Amino acid sequence: MGKLSSILLGTVSGAALALFLTSDKGKQVCSQAQDFLDDLREDPEYAKEQVCEKLTEVKEQATDFVLKTKEQVESGEITFDSVLNQAKTCARQATEASKETFNNLKEQWQEQSATPDIVEDEEEIIIDIIEE
Q1: Could you tell me which residues come within 8 angstroms of residue 8 by beta carbon, excluding any fewer than 6 positions away?
Q2: In order along the chain (132 residues), what is the average pLDDT of each group of 10 residues?
Q3: Dist CA 81 CA 63 (whole Å)
Q4: Whether the predicted model's global pTM rises above the 0.90 cut
Q5: Which are the contacts of 26, defined by CB distance < 8 A and separation ≥ 6?
Q6: Most buried residue, 16, 75, 98, 116, by CB count within 10 Å?
Q7: CB contact at 8 A, 9 and 70
Q8: Cβ neighbour number for residue 20 with a 10 Å cutoff
Q9: C-alpha–C-alpha distance, residues 15 and 90, integer Å
Q10: Which of 3, 4, 17 is nearest to 65 (CA)?
């Protein structure tokens, strides 16, 4: 495989990963990863078995994906322009998701800063100092 094909394959893979992680399914996978970490803390041996099974599945899926993508690159189905357009789309989606998250955090911060702290039973302490 030539350098251009390798770069193209890497770009396609990166764009696909970015698109996946910003999708609902990607968020679900992240949630499942957190659940797995919780299981790992509770029963490490069971977690080890699960990891071995999943790694075998992922290896098979990754191999199939790479072979399919390689065929698409070689046949011209995937071109530099198509990858660039997909990367731009992913970048726009990631930017929009980031803006939305930032605006939500900004709103939460503004709400918290606008809410005055309630002080109950406020008493004034006066200390008289008498000089002799």
Answers
A1: 73, 78, 80, 83
A2: 73 77 78 80 82 88 87 86 85 84 81 64 74 70
A3: 24
A4: no
A5: 20
A6: 16
A7: yes
A8: 13
A9: 7
A10: 17
